[in-house]
Structures are given as C-alpha cells and as structure tokens.
From TrEMBL:
Alphabetical UniProt keywords: Membrane, Signal, Transmembrane, Transmembrane helix
Basic and acidic residues: bias regions: 144-162
Positions of transmembrane segments: 101-118
Protein known as: DUF6310 domain-containing protein
Region feature Disordered, mapped onto this chain: 136-169
InterPro entries per the UniProt record, alphabetical: DUF6310
Pfam families in UniProt: DUF6310
Signal sequence region: 1-17
Residue ranges occupied by any DUF6310 domain in the UniProt entry: 176-298
Keyword Transmembrane helix: yes
Domain of life where this protein originates: Bacteria
Amino acid sequence: MRIHACIAILLFISACATTEPAVRGPRMANLQRASALPWSDGGRCVVREASQPWPVLVERCYPALDQDRLEFHDTTGRCTVASAGAAAVGLGFCVLAAPEIVVGAVIVLGVVVVAVAIKEELEAYELRHLYPEEAGTSRGTRAAPREVAAERKPKLEPEPAGKDWQPPLPPVPLGRTGRASCEPVPVPHAGEDDAHNECADEFPPNRFPGHDVLVNGKRFDALQVGVRVLWEIKTYQFDTYSDYLRERVIEQQVDEFLEDRKIAEACGYRFVVGVSSEAHKEALLRVDSSLQIVVTGCKR
C-alpha cells in the first residue's frame, strides 16, 4: 500500500509540475491538476468549476473528494497559522489549495484512475487544440471554418449611418512554417458557463460571438471588434470571497495575466482584463499596476 501511495505522490507532483498554464490556460491547468486526485462524483464538480481559480475550485469541490484515500500533512506550517477563513474548511483544504504542492503534503493511497468527466474534458481540449476547425464535434456541434467565421458579421449595437461595417484586422506576422502563427482562430467557448460566455461576447464586443479565440496556442476569451485587443473575462463573485481566498486568487491571476499579456504582445495585440467589480480591479492593480483592467459589471 505504501508503494502505491508513493507512486501516487509522484504522479500528483508531476501533474502539477508539468502543467503549462501559459499555453493551456487556467481551466486546463486545473483539470490536469485535479486529474491526479480521487473523486467520488466522477469529476463532475471539477469540470463545472474548472474555470475558477484553483483555491475556489478546491473549496467548492472538496466534499466530492474520496477522502478515505487521501492524507494531508502541513509540512510547511503555513496552514497552522492560516486565516480563519481557511481554517473553517479544514487542514485538507488549506494544504490542497496552495499554489504549489509541497512534497509529502498530499498523499494519495492507491493508484488513481482519471475521473471520467475530467478525462472527457481533457480529451476534448486536445481535439480543439489540434483541430480547431473541428473543435465543436466533441460537444455535438461543428465550429465554423476560418473563412466563414472571419466573414461572419458580429452582432453589434446600432451605429451611425455609413459605419455599419467592421474594419479588417491588420496583417499578422508569419511563422517559420509560412502559417500565420499569430492568426486569430475562432474556437467554441470552453466550458458551459453561460454568464461568462455572454459577457465575453457582448462586453468588448467579441469579433467572433460564441467563440474564444486561439492566438499562438493560447486561448483568449474574446478578440475585440475592429482592433487588435485580446480580452480575458472574469465573472467571479470576488466580493464574496474570504480574505484568504482573495489573496490566493489574486496571486494566481496576476501570474496568469502577465503570461497572457506576454503572448498577446508578442503577436502585436494589446491585452485587457475584464472583471465584474471595482474591488476585484483594485486588488489586481495593488499587486501589479501595469495591468489594464476594466470593470464590466457582468453578473453571474
């Protein structure tokens, strides 16, 4: 049994260490991280909450863990002095919600088989990533070909006469293969968070309604109509989080946004983050004032 536990620890640490959030994005990083844990609900809660920051996902899905197969050890002493907000949900949550898992902190007994719902979501992502034009097939729909999607006119608010057309995007640089690696490719919105997707479509507004946009291997929530601006939309109920969760979420998001901005700027795009509340915006800017943050007011 202890041999199996050691194997599980190595698998869990490996899953966390090999995640590439700058390429896969936080949703896929969370799914990959969660895939190394045993879930009693087949991973359904994880798939539903995967777009949330990892600490929020852990808080909401912690009851769905098969805790008979888990041991938590506060090897750093961090959780012993954690805030009351973290202590209220127990040592296990505090240890598991950490940005990085310390060796020996989480021990999984036995071999973990990836939960069915998580496995399906990861496989669907790989299909979207390799074949973006056929990304919709995993959900029973077919994504529009690039030419059709690019020509489709997005739904916009009425504009003055003579301005009812959208200017084409400036040319994008070509990669070594001759393909436009920075070409914006529309792919179906990841996940089924209707409120988030509606905000991403309507607020910038999105050049490709109903779609995320893939730029140089990174999925963004929206490409703004008529300009080279990529958006990441967050509709979290940030104002309702405990102080402990706020700190963890902001720490994770700032790192995420700086990576996103680097990818966007390398392809000649500006990068903007949309958040639902002024409190969320202020918390992000306190950590890094160089970020461009806009309050969307979108509700969940």
